[in-house]
Amino acid sequence: MTFGAKLQTARQYINGRWETGVTTGTSENPSDTRDVVAEYARADRNQTELAIRAAAEALPHWSLSTPQRRFDVLDHIGGEILARKSELGYLLAREEGKTLPEAVAEVTRAGQIFKFFAGEALRIPGETLASTRPGVQVDVTREPVGVVGIIAPWNFPFAIPAWKIAPALAYGNSVVFKPAELVPTCGWALAEIISRSGLPAGVFNLVMGSGREVGQALVDSPRVNAISFTGSSATGERILQTAAARRAKVQLEMGGKNPLVVLADADLDQAVDCAVQGAYFSTGQRCTASSRLIVEAGVHDAFVSRLRQRMVNLKIGHALERDTAIGPVVDRSQLEQNLAWMEIARAEGAEHVWGGAMLESATPGHYMSPALFLAKPEHRVAREEIFGPVACVLRADSYEPALALANETPFGLCAGICTASLKNAMHFKRHADVGMTMVNLPTAGVDYHVPFGGRKWSSYGPREQGRYAAEFYTTVKTGYMLA
Ligand code: TXE
Questions:
Q1: What is the pTM of this model?
Q2: 239 CB under 6 A from ligand 1?
Q3: Which domains, and CATH codes, for the chain?
């Protein structure tokens, strides 16, 4: 099967079979809304329940599968994704709107993640300890957590599902995966590869449809032992209340308002690069986006002027065109939301530097110019996640107030600093109240073999990715035996 420019028909994958849905939806290309990417099957609660049952029935057998079997499955999936990265990247750019190089890089990442967790299946850790009692042996082993419900957002439709599905399978769990409604074809393309990897029927299931129906059914079902979710804070909060009340394990990744501190001793060109990359690439639609640029007074004006100059020259356009730097916003409603933020920022007195306009293009798409404001810490534009190509600059007199500003947010995903001072860099790494820090690097852009996640309102539950993923996708058992 190949995923070119033609119309796709995406079906549910339940208990090893491709199924039509209860209704049908369409997904469109945000670079050119005349281009329908797919017609896809939409499930209701009952169909979701069938997938959950299939996962529950497949669990006992798969949970006892050998590490070699799991390695083979995951290695096969990763290999096929990597071999087809150009074609899958094309599909991703077409359906989500990030540029083709960004999309191919994301697909590559997804393949690497499956390869990484293939290896982790062979390295499932355990411990043997001396007992405090004579003649007793103690060991600590890890077992699968059970049926895992995976609820994914639209902004990384290959990488985020990969970093949830791959560890779930590696540690012997069964899966029901629900992609976001804006990107069903990417979810289905991934499922299509997984369906040919040698997994027994029911171990992996795909259900597409609305969050309120399909997602909520996963969250409510007593057969689903764990929920891994990435998306908005409001939905995450709702999921937590319901899932925790029925004692399911929950992992939430809900975004950020990430600071990039620029000190007066920074290499200014490098700092501007970090800001442009972190704030605007992928159309700013990243939970790790640098949406608060906290700049030391001594370089404030120079930084703003150089950043503006770079922004003016960024080419906004069709995601599949060769020289596009920034693709469209993902859909009409997100674009309207971003434009409404322009009004909010102006109304509360933030100074507009550049951008924030809806753009006309050769193709009808959701285009806007990246926006920059000079804001005060109390402005909403400097406090709330916008999830678009919108950033603000906050002035700080010196390093200490800059650090205080960086931490003055309910979010805590990641924080960056641009500086030549080792002392300030080390201090910042220790005192930024976040899950990830970056020095002289953009806040967006992470490795796949180390933990991903944040503090405060950004994340909840064990970290994702790397070997730390075992914390969520397994449960430990302590065994005592009289020798
Ligand atoms: O998110 P939702 P949406 C933010 C961003 C964006 C806003 C809305 O600000 O503007 O969220 O985006 C499923 N039970 N982020 O609507 O609703 C839903 O179908 C169970 C930030 O896409 O949170 C989808 O699969 N599931 C974020 C997933 O949850 C439910 C990335 C995310 O949808 C559900 C994406 C329910 N009741 C959006 N309701 C980041 N920070 O990375 C919805 N869903």
A1: 0.97
A2: yes
A3: 8-254+458-482 (3.40.605.10), 259-439 (3.40.309.10)
